[in-house]
Specification:
The chain is of the alpha/beta class and 325 residues long. It contains 12 helices and 16 strands. The strands form 5 sheets. Strands 3-6-7-10-11-12-13-16 form an 8-stranded parallel beta sheet. The chain has a two-stranded antiparallel sheet with strand order 1-2. The longest helix is centred in the middle third of the chain and has 15 residues. The protein is globular, with a radius of gyration of 18 Å.
Length: 325
């Protein structure tokens, strides 16, 4: 099963891979912005297994593990670059040596330097999808970057670009202004149907890159029994945007919503995670979910959703009648 990456025409596997977690730690003082320590050998095996099972789209960012995620992704597909579609993001600064997060930087100069650093770490001379990571940046700031991005497309350093933002107004402005804009990355899951952003993607021939398709792991079902994440895990932090976890444990209200639709999601022999991905595949042909994975077993479960395919129309309606009556 494949999907088209927006107006770029690039064909990718219908389910991609998010590479935040394999970056390992990133911190700013006591604040954590990673998923805790990662086993690099297991990460590489996981990426390669995901590719064997049909994943060709891999999404990372310059600040995931202060660039470590990009390095691991580059190592995993060294010698096989033409078999994968690589997406990364820029806008958040970080120090590769100390793994310390820095301030935001929306300047054109940082765009250029961040791209060069990402190319180096990924071990490639061209990035397929280069995405602005600052979702709350003002629209004029983002639009000022488009001429630079178009120049980089012409130079062959990137094939296309996009914006990672949950705001439909920002997404629409960027997609309309940028001829090379082909994707909007935004939070989207069965628990959070971002219909307004998806509508922009469908209307403007943009790929809808669904980050958080498993609600930061809550839709895996592993946190229903009070399981707590590690102390160096971003989900243990008390951030305003940390919706699905409270003090490192699954939020009871969200868990109750999952339980209300569990039977439908797990129909046909699917696991809970596979059902959540099947809902996204049924939601729109523009949708490309990018679930994260840190182990081979997780990759096999996530990509296993392709075998059963999207939810049926009836199954989809049942989910909506419960969650969004």
């Amino acid at each position: 099963m494949t999907r088209i990456l927006g107006r770029s025409g690039i064909e990718v596997g219908a389910i991609g891979v998010g590479c935040w977690a394999i970056g390992g730690p990133l911190q700013a003082g006591s604040d954590q912005f990673g998923y805790g320590p990662a086993d690099d050998d297991e990460s590489i095996a996981t990426l390669r297994r995901a590719h064997e099972l049909g994943a060709t789209f891999f999404d990372t960012a310059s600040n995931y593990g202060a660039g470590h995620s990009e390095k691991i992704l580059g190592r995993a597909f060294a010698g096989h670059r033409d078999e994968v579609v690589l997406a990364t993001k820029w806008g958040y600064t970080s120090d590769e040596a100390t793994r310390e997060a820095g301030p935001e930087d929306a300047s054109a100069a940082y765009l250029r330097s961040s791209l060069d650093d990402s190319l180096r770490r990924l071990g490639t001379d061209c990035i397929d999808l280069f995405q602005f990571h600052l979702g709350g940046a003002e629209i004029p700031v983002a639009l000022d970057l488009i001429p630079v991005l178009d120049e980089l497309v012409t130079a062959g350093k990137i094939r296309s670009y996009g914006w990672s933002t949950d705001d439909p107004g920002r997404a629409e402005a960027f997609a309309k202004a940028g001829a090379g804009c082909t994707a909007i990355q935004h939070d989207h899951s069965v628990l959070n149907d971002a219909a307004d952003v998806l509508a922009v993607c469908e209307a403007l021939d943009q790929a809808s890159i669904a980050r958080g398709p498993l609600a930061m792991g809550l839709l895996s079902g592993k946190y229903h029994a009070g399981r707590t994440v590690g102390e160096r895990d971003v989900r243990a932090m008390d951030y305003d945007w940390m919706t699905y976890f409270t003090n490192g444990t699954g939020d009871p209200e969200w868990i109750a919503r999952i339980d209300a639709v569990r039977d439908v999601l797990t129909s046909g022999g699917r696991t809970l995670a596979q059902g959540a991905l099947a809902w996204l595949l049924a939601r729109s042909p523009a949708m490309i979910p990018i679930p994260g994975c840190r182990t081979v077993a997780q990759a096999e479960e996530n990509l296993g959703a392709l075998a059963a395919g999207p939810l049926s129309e009836d199954e989809f309606r049942q989910i909506e009648s419960v969650l969004r009556p």
